Structures are given as structure tokens and as C-alpha cells.
Write the C-alpha cells for this entry.
Amino acid sequence: MRKPQPPMRDIEYIKSRFDYDPDSGLVKWKPVADNSSGWNTKYAGTYPSATDALGYIRAKITMGDWSGYVSIHRICFFIHNGYLPVVVDHINGNVKDNRACNLRAADFERNTWNRIPNRDTMTGRKGVSTVKYMSGPNQGGICGYTARIGHKGVREYLGFFKSYEEASAAYDKRETELRPEYVR
């Protein structure tokens, strides 16, 4: 089970451990005052490079009695903005791009709006699904496409379309109407 992120309230502590460049998005470890273990020789001035299964860069830190990994994009947002939202969203979808202009506050729902399609989708497109013939000589073949969009807990059916392009266009149009700031 994944360990929860720490309640990062102490911005001065975080700033004392990391040097963040908001223009490049790079984070470096800062030297620590107690260098008894040789930490500064090994880590100070280097970039955290551990990644999780989704590709997010993370750093292991200790805050009080909590010790564990924290995602670097959360540290960047916290240092730059002075607070930490429920979710920090990468606007361009690149989880390694931690520039301040690419990070925004979000909640779980808004963060899912900015997701890429699942890898196993047949169309390679969010909100567009294939419809197959159920019987007859073309059984199993694609007879058209449906478009659906979820927004604020409601799943909206956008229609059946003969072509992938029509279904994609319908999804794009509705997405732009509902949440223009999250369209990629």
C-alpha cells in the first residue's frame, strides 16, 4: 500500500532542503547543517532522481516522525506558491516538467480531465469508443463509434457516429464547452 504524502505545512523546512528554479523546473538538494553522515558530500547540489511507477520524480524526506517519498512537483508547487492543494496538476501532461508555469492547483476530478487516454483503449482517444456488430456476416467488425464525456459526476452520451473523426470532433466540442482550461 502506498504511504500517504506528509502534511507539508512547514514551508521553511522544505525551502531549507530544496533549491527550486521555477523557470527550469529543476530541484536540487541543499546542504544540511548536520553533515555527520556525509550527506552533503553525497547529495548536496544533486537532483533528486527517484521515480515512481507513473514516472513522477520524488525525493525521500523526513519531517518530524514522518519519513517517506514526496513527489517533486508537489514540493515545487509548495515552494513557489506557499500552499499545497489537494492535487497538483501538470498542465501539459508531462510529469517530469515541473516549471511553475506548468503546475496548477486542482482537485481529483479536474486532474482526471487532464489525463491521457488509457493505454488499452481501442481508439487511442478519451471519450471515444468503438461499436461492433453483434451478429451477421460482419460480427466483431466495427460499425461505428460512440462519444461520451463525464463532467461533475454525470456521464453524458454525445451520440453514435459512423466515423472516428466525427466522434472525436463531438467529444472535443463538448469538452471545450464544459472545461476549456483543461483541453489539450
In short: Residues 164-178 form the longest helix (15 residues). Helices lie at 11-17, 39-42, 72-81, 108-113, 164-178.
